């Protein structure tokens, strides 16, 4: 597809915006939305959500036109092929594009041609040319770049600014007070936030650092904020949560990993005042749960509810090794689990230690990702009929895309229901892409479901580790739906004798004759990692004996059959 054939001007602008990023860079769609809003690339919009819808529509069109690539590692990221990016930069350099981009320091030094976008995002330390004047620049993205405050005096049109500094040379934010059109600001590793409150035109603010002082006094003056992103920010002094409620125009609030949610007793009450809120990211201790709390109507959420036992006390000296191991495991959860879910789904919930069903029940109906750690119940709330049901289990199972359950010692079954609502509703688990089960010592069965209403047609990644009581994985009818399965990892499941088990009702499947088996059960190219099997009945009801403890193999069933 040629750039010239893109019908909508918004799609063209979104394409050129992607060219801002370096080669092979993973482009966060969330950032594209924020930059688009700040630059008003699509004209005036009533809400961030309106811009997000247009950006996602443009990205889908660009991917269908092969001008953008889907990032294979993270679903909500995209990439621009090197050659396509070169073309995009050439298009942006043409006068009629009105979007000249300078992405290398030498281009700034060699040319005085005015431009609208400057980005220096490589990891090398840089010094921004002090004497250059850029009166037309609207977006400036700098990574590890020393810049003098005087450089901003001539940037009267600047609307989007991102500064990430790893050096000791950090400008005072007073230098930004002359930027009367600044709408989007991202600061990383800045310690002095004095004068931030004077940037009253800001509508999107993102901060990244370890500790802040005096932020609350500055934030309270930014009454026009629509997005506040304080992910991972810690505060050396107590942050007064009533600051949040005074930001009444907020549409998106990101506090995950921030001490605001973890240490504030009233953060949920403050959120209740944000009537325009559509996106929320939050970490909160169970001691701060409010039983009858009602979340705003959220389009996106990523919420982590910690149990009170998560706070690690000082152990007895004889238990110090176990204490450190437990602490390391919890940190591993944070690094490996939370980030991946944020990028994979729009609506995710992580529960640790206790499952406050009444608090989160209103989020379950459209939940896409569920992670559960360290609970002691025999069932997972929301995944089984055996527990309270404010929201139908079948509705929850129809929407889930990712499930991860670890260290739940008494859990016996993961998915369980006998009821399926609606004849025309999608099959149960038909959207499930990833299932990870680990350290579930009492787990004997994964699914107790009416198999005629279950389809695992979207499952790509299945990982099961240290589930010693598990005896089988799939019935034949379930296995037949695994057309997209790419990765199967099984470790430490000593009682697992059969991967595919013939159950009552499977006779009809097996009785369909040889033509039924012309395509294998697992028809996708798949990577297998199997550990600890001795005698296992495996794919297609065939028996393999595993003499080794670790076997890695590429299974190309369908391709091999085609060759034969």
Automatic annotation (TrEMBL):
Gene3D superfamilies: Ribonuclease Inhibitor, Winged helix-like DNA-binding domain superfamily/Winged helix DNA-binding domain. Residues 393-494 form the Disease resistance protein At4g27190-like leucine-rich repeats domain. It comes from the Eukaryota. Keywords: Leucine-rich repeat, Plant defense, Repeat. SUPFAM superfamilies: L domain-like. GO terms for biological process: defense response. InterPro entries: At4g27190-like_LRR (IPR057135), LRR_dom_sf (IPR032675), LRR_R13L4/SHOC2-like (IPR055414), Plant_NBS-LRR (IPR050905), WH-like_DNA-bd_sf (IPR036388). Residues 156-285 form the Disease resistance R13L4/SHOC-2-like LRR domain. This is NB-ARC domain-containing protein. The lineage of its organism: Eukaryota, Viridiplantae, Streptophyta, Embryophyta, Tracheophyta.
